[in-house]
Write a structure and sequence with these properties.
Helix content is 38%, strand content 18%. It is an alpha/beta fold. The chain has 2 domains: 1-153 and 290-338, Isopropylmalate Dehydrogenase; 162-280, Isopropylmalate Dehydrogenase, CATH 3.40.718.10. A 12-stranded mixed β-sheet has the order 3-4-2-1-5-12-11-6-7-10-8-9, sandwiched between helices. Strand 8, helix 9 (225-239) and strand 9 (244-248) form a beta-alpha-beta unit. The longest helix is centred in the N-terminal third of the chain and has 19 residues, at 96-114. The protein is globular, with a radius of gyration of 20 Å.
Length: 338
Amino acid sequence: MSDTRPFIAISTGDPAGVGPEISVKALAKPKIYEISRPVLVGDRAVVEKAAGFCGSNLGINTVSSPQEGRYRAGTLDLIDLRNIRLDEYTEGEAAAVCGKAAYEYIERAAHLALDRDVDVLVTAPISKEAVKRAGVRYFGHTEILGNLCGVDDPLTMFETHGLRVFFLTRHMSLVDAIRSVTEERVYEYILRCSKALKKLGETDPILAVAGLNPHSGDGGLFGDEEIRCISPAVQRAKSSGVKVEGPLAADSVFALALRGKFSAVLSLYHDQGHIATKTLDFESTISVTLGLPFLRTSPDHGTAFDIAGTGNAHERSMESALSAAVRYSPLYRPSPFQ
């Protein structure tokens, strides 16, 4: 009988952060191997150190390709890039050498996905400061992967407890995010988000668009972006046959979506959607990147430098990212979202 478990590449993230630790802890769970074939992309010395301070006794099987992995509980399969020494960094501190190593893990794992050697990519947290110090042009995972894949503007979706949130803008100042709320951009994103939801298995999705201003501007009393840009975009999308509502006040729209009224919410800026999902469940919120030639999931938290190296990082976020990767992999075809 052929093995149908999807191959998953896991980039281990910043060596000085909690990425290696949560990767090791998640892969210590036998249930992960019941549903997937995960291979780490990282540095053996870093992974061994993480296993040591979190008390793991996993065996490490170094491979040159995913096809060489054993994929059984008790053994961690690893593509070892050997690109950093333990004496070059300190846990909990941003360093250029760690940013460079983390970028190289992502790059190798992404190429495995592009070459169809793995089915899905899962990424552990990186430090944007460290990546910047390393001289990498793009700092965030989404931007890095978009550049590696030649995709201009991938979609970001957060998910926790059935609540799904898309983002119109990501890593930019709030002033720039507000300037980006144009009718054309909102309209385009409504269409893309609706299409993405169908790709992920929603047969008849209903999208909600969050308001930008308090009370969605209250008829222009607190800003006019809703009148000038957002409402016209929503009406255009409705005329195109998309089921969409909005703009709806951001202080209530996420609660309504959580209760099942909407399939997802389009958040207009970074913190608007992050606060909603992370307050609901910080440890199990995951990020899903759509629009690449492959599916990517990740924990939605950072490097947690304050607890790196202590063994106290919780692996639930990584487990959730792995579970989502398995759940969505059969639905995702190799062609990118448009």
